[in-house]
Amino acid sequence: MVVLNRIYTRTGDKGETALGDGARVPKDSARVAAYGTVDELNAALGVARLHADGETDAALARIQNDLFDLGADLATPEPDKDAARPHPALRVTGAQVDRLEAEIDALNARLSPLRSFVLPGGTVLAAHLHVCRTVARRAERLVVTLAAAEPINEPGLRYLNRLSDWFFVAARIANDDGARDVLWVPGQNR
Asked: Which residue intervals define the domain Cobalamin adenosyltransferase-like in the entry (predicted)?
């Protein structure tokens, strides 16, 4: 259980923060940038939820919880093989990725195939989901950068990759099953 009875601690006043394993790192480290961007995505998703209801809102709530799991995962480095940890770290699992894939398939089955790229927009919810999609892609790029420097939990990276696809399909659903999609017209304004 998490207990937060004090919000400020002053321990980060010199530009460092603690990871899930207690190690202190600079606040601009690749790991902090990755999980910080996942946190930013979660906040953008909170705004999107203001415009969602029913099953869409329930799905977005599940994703918000998954994003906290992912943040905890990224905030806790993979241990050395010989290191003992008193409690196992929370890790994103393949089952969470599988759930996203199943949801993408179910949502996409409702849509007509695209004949053009979609511009972000349409309904308010769709526009917010497109913002979430782009923040998810940025988070994914930062996790790739982190993975080049140190080991990560691979399902977390796969989760972010699927999540941006989920947001794309969900944005089309929010655009009246694609009827209100704003389509790109190449060279329209030449």
From this structure: 7-173
